[in-house]
Amino acid sequence: MASIDSMNALLVDELRDIYDAEKRLTKAIPKLSRKATNDDLRSALDQHLQETEGQVARLEEAFEHLGERAKGKPCAGMRGIIEEGDEHVGEDYEDDDLRDAVIIGSAQRVEHYEIAAYGTAIAHARLLEQEDVVRLLEESLEEEKAADRKLTEIAESVVNLEAADAGEEDDETLALAGAGAGQARRASASRQRATASASSRGRTGNSGGRNGGRSRSR
Predict the structure, then answer these.
(1) Burial of 163 (0-12, 13-18, 19+ CB in 10 A)
(2) Which of 43, 82, 182, 212 has the greatest CB tally within 10 Å of its CB?
(3) Is 216's pLDDT higher than 60?
């Protein structure tokens, strides 16, 4: 592993980390899109895939400005986020809207990681007065922020509401089932009381008849 002995070397190292992250996302985003059922969510993911491919190209241009070869450095952070997202999205869900809500959460974790990474690299590029690099990275940063806002909008206006409604419908079904069971128990108890009452009246009548017979005999 090469030592980082200057701010320029640090910036190159950061860009290689981001470069690897973006490359991974060009493969991960289509998987999320295929799993999504909400049309707006799928459209937003497909659009961001195109933006991600453009961000890869900008990073390659940034490497050129720095006189470095474009290559990635394994990004453990993004790899972990993607693996966690795959695990969560692959779970069994009672309703598709619940999976869409999970997809949005996974995608926004990605966006927040990238926003932080780009922000740091921009600050370091600005310190080095690499304005061409700053311009390229800022363009990608704005796309990441816009994608995050779009995902929030979809979540708050559609997906999370539908997922919550699905949960309420399940609760209502359980409540109705519970109410039905309660009614059945009450009806059964009522029938048992009616049977017991009728039996009691029968015993009382028979007892009276026997007593009356003995009285007339006397």
Answers:
(1) buried
(2) 82
(3) no
